[in-house]
Write a structure and sequence with these properties.
About 25% of the residues lie in helices and about 30% in strands. The chain has 16 helices and 32 strands. The longest helix has 22 residues, at about 385-405.
């Protein structure tokens, strides 16, 4: 039997229901917006996206479009979680603004003073780069994104250590250049000063007071949410393909936040209201004003025929600043595997727009943002979708023309200088990581901690790097990045050179032969004394490791390479190879850059 609700509860329920329905009142400026946004799915062959529009201190429009799960046909809602990528940066920088207000740091003091483990490429950078320089992308460092993207690690300490090997391509404060490492560093400064993780700081100081209870800081957590989007990309501009989540926990402060348009709306409302949310200061007002003021010129921002209303192009503190059809716009985009995002607001107009999509490198955030901004600001209609499609088509045509006019310097009929197995090994660059080269059938492949790549022979010891997809197979198209193997004085492969940062010289990855594992008992047969040019050389075991001692020199720890060969750990290009017959060791050879020297066993 049903029970009747008490009258007071029924009245309360009625009021609550009415409030829910009237929470977002229709706005005449946004009449027909649903249809216009729905059309973007078809225009850009997209799976799904969500938008939220705020004015002053309230949400006036929010809706999801398309699917968060394409195969399962699960719809996007206003609460669907998306990866927001680099929109994370403003969250990280805001933590430093809070610390400055509390007297814990100054944005204009050198960064290494707050984080002693931080070392730049040279001492001048160590002494002169300030926290503000890192926040405004004016350190002299170019992107170096392949360091963390191709060679990811969950260890922030390991990533921080790479910075000292990243070469600058210009002077400090001479040029604006985007760099994700500088936001990783800001997160670590926060950790050092507060004694809490970056994640704990974001949750405690931003998520909790803004009611962002479902937002999280790792795709591990996002994948466990019942209303989280999958990520997608377009193959050949038409075929929708699902992408795996890309875990960037190590670089988290630069881009690992996942959120919904509902909760990101609270973040934008806070910025529109000078750092306050529901009347309470979350971000210091003094910092918000600095953050949305020009700190570095990105370019001239000169008007042209296609964009006659652009008058400046600057960067604040984790925000892009530009003019938009006569209005001051603050914005930051975000892109990470399978997702694109835009967070923007117009401080003089008290309007904010959030667009999140599950399409990789998508134009939808820009198109939807502009379409909505024109309506909110009562500007003349422009078909942004067509304009951006036309611009993309022109860029594609220019690329094809450039490809057509490109001449190849490939020398036909050449072959590698060594058998393919000689190229196998691990190649290391301390600013990037390990690149493992291995042979499969008649081809060489390269493996990073993220991807496998096919190395197609180009000429001599130069190989083209091609994609290798487990579903689609090898990429056989022409062109692409090349790597060049180099030999040592002894004729063996010593390194490879690879252009990963176009504004700098090729990066050198030094060759390390693949290390073999040998048990203590197997090593015992090499132990003994050997006569070398009248001297007695000793080979002995210490804690399961083989050591070689030559009179007058330090003891040398060795690393087993197989085939009775051991590398001297601290000397590049030096090794010993034991002579073995009938499983008995009769002598050894010292292999050095200046020759090979034989020693008889005593």
């Amino acid at each position: 039997m049903k029970k009747l609700l008490p009258l007071s509860l029924m009245l309360l329920f009625s009021v609550f229901t009415t409030a829910q329905k009237s929470k977002i009142q229709p706005d005449k400026r946004l009449s027909g917006l649903d249809t216009a946004l729905e059309k973007l799915l078809k225009d850009w062959n997209a799976v799904g996206f969500a938008v939220a529009v705020v004015e002053k201190n309230q949400v006036i429009y929010s809706r999801g479009f398309g699917y968060r799960d394409y195969a399962g046909k699960k719809p996007v809602t206003v609460n669907t979680l998306f990866a927001i990528g680099s929109c994370t940066k403003a969250f990280t920088a805001s933590l430093l603004g809070m610390l400055e207000k509390n007297g814990k740091l100054s944005l204009d003091k050198k960064a290494t003073g707050y984080l002693p483990a931080l070392h730049f490429f040279n001492n001048d950078m160590n002494e002169k780069i300030t926290v503000r320089d890192m926040m405004a992308h004016r350190t002299g460092l170019s992107r170096h994104d392949y360091s963390w993207y191709l060679f990811p690690t969950a260890s922030r300490d390991s990533l921080l250590q790479r910075i000292q090997y990243l070469e600058p391509n210009t002077g400090i404060r001479e040029k604006w250049q985007y760099n994700n490492f500088m936001f990783l560093t800001q997160g670590m400064i926060t950790e050092k000063i507060t004694g809490k993780s970056w994640e704990e700081n974001i949750k405690e100081k931003i998520f909790t007071p803004l009611g962002m209870s479902r937002s999280n800081l790792s795709v591990k957590n996002m994948g466990q949410d019942d209303d989280a989007s999958l990520g997608y990309t377009l193959k050949k501009d038409s075929s929708i393909k699902k992408l795996d989540y890309f875990n960037i926990d190590g670089m988290g402060p630069a881009g690992s936040i996942n959120s919904s348009v509902t909760e990101m709306a609270n973040w934008v409302i806070t910025w529109i209201n000078n750092g306050k949310f529901n009347g309470k200061e979350i971000i210091p007002e003094s910092y918000t004003r600095e953050a949305i003021s020009a700190q570095m010129a990105m370019g001239g921002g000169i008007p042209d025929k296609e964009s006659p209303d652009i008058y400046f192009s600057n960067y604040g503190l984790a925000w892009f600043l530009t003019s938009y059809r006569g209005h001051y716009r603050v914005e930051h985009g975000g892109n990470i595997d399978g997702f694109s995002a835009s967070t923007s607001f117009f401080p003089s107009d008290s309007i904010g727009i959030v667009v999140l999509t599950n399409q990789n490198g998508s134009a939808i955030p820009s198109v939807a943002r502009n379409l909505i901004a024109d309506r909110m600001l009562k500007l003349q209609y422009r078909n942004w979708s067509n304009e951006l499609k036309l611009a993309a088509a022109k860029a594609t045509l220019r690329a094809k023309e450039a490809e057509k006019n490109k001449t190849s310097n490939r020398v036909a009929g050449t072959k590698p200088s060594h058998p393919l197995k000689d190229y196998e090994g691990v190649f290391n660059n301390p600013g990037y990581g390990n690149l493992e080269i291995y042979q499969r059938n008649d081809s060489l492949f390269a493996r990073t901690s993220k991807d496998s790549l096919w190395l197609r022979h180009y000429h001599y010891d130069v190989f083209e790097i091609k994609g290798f997809d487990k579903e689609e197979g090898l990429d056989t198209s022409s062109g692409g990045t090349v790597l060049n193997f180099a030999t040592r004085n002894d004729g063996k492969i010593g390194s490879l050179n690879l252009i990963l940062e176009p504004s700098l010289k090729p990066l050198e990855f030094v060759y390390t032969p693949r290390v073999r594992s040998i048990g203590k008992e197997a090593l015992q047969k090499y132990v003994g004394e050997y006569e070398l040019a009248g001297m007695t050389t000793r080979v002995y075991l210490k804690e399961g490791t083989l050591f070689v001692f030559v009179p007058g020199q330090p003891e040398y720890e060795t690393v087993p390479l197989g085939d009775h060969t051991f590398k001297l750990k601290v000397l590049e290009g030096y090794s010993v190879k034991f002579d073995v017959a009938d499983n008995k060791v009769t002598g050894m050879s010292f292999i050095q850059p200046n020759g090979t020297f034989k020693a008889k066993r005593k």
